[in-house]
């Protein structure tokens, strides 16, 4: 039996993402990797993203300032395809939970993209429908 694989889930810590005046920047700088073990399977990218979208942070991680809005009610990952380094993720969001202000949707997007790009075979990430994660 193969041992579990260690993966990184990228969540957000606003305290790591402030400018000199204390304003939140809504940038990649606020991303923090937390490690989790997943079973070795045929779809590690998809398995890791599904785990990210559960938003299951430990009390210790939350106490350290790490947060997430995942899981979003009704929001789900429907299809995953990887061709020539291009990862396409199709979501279903009937309640429009992925929308909002540009800061919020950017952080939601960044978390997924950073988590996906830890895998060397993923060079780019595309979201479908294209209206998803729009302010």
Structure description:
The protein is of the alpha+beta class and 135 residues long. Helices cover 23% and strands 27% of the residues. The protein has one domain (5-128). The strands form 2 sheets. A 3-stranded mixed β-sheet has the order 3-4-5, with helices on one face. Strands 1-2 form a two-stranded antiparallel ribbon. The termini are far apart. The mean pLDDT is 96. InterPro entries: GerMN. It comes from Candidatus Jorgensenbacteria bacterium GWA1_49_17.
Count of beta strands: 5
Beta-strand portion reads 25-35%
- The outline comes out as globular
Q: Please work out how many helical segments DSSP would assign.
A: 3
Helix proportion: 10-25%
The domain tally reads 1
**Rg to the nearest angstrom?**
15 Å
Report the span from N to C terminus. Answer: 46 Å
Strand order of the largest sheet: 3-4-5
Mean of residue pLDDT? 96
As residue ranges, the low-confidence spans are none
InterPro entries: GerMN
Domain GerMN: 9-128
Protein name: GerMN domain-containing protein
Organism: Candidatus Jorgensenbacteria bacterium GWA1_49_17
Labels describing this entry:
135 residues, alpha+beta, two-stranded antiparallel ribbon, 5 strands, 23% helix
């Amino acid at each position: 039996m193969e041992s579990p694989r260690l993966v990184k889930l990228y969540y957000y810590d606003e305290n790591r993402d402030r400018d000199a005046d204390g304003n939140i920047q809504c940038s990649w700088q606020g991303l923090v990797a937390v490690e989790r073990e997943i079973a070795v399977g045929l779809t590690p990218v998809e398995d890791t993203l599904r785990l990210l979208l559960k938003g299951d942070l430990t009390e210790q991680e939350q106490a350290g300032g790490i947060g997430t809005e995942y899981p979003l009610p009704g929001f789900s990952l429907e299809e995953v395809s990887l061709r020539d380094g291009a990862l396409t993720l199709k979501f279903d969001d009937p309640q429009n939970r992925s929308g909002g202000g540009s800061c919020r949707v950017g952080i939601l997007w960044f978390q997924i993209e950073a988590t996906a790009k830890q895998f060397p075979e993923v060079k780019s990430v595309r979201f479908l429908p294209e209206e998803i994660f729009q302010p």
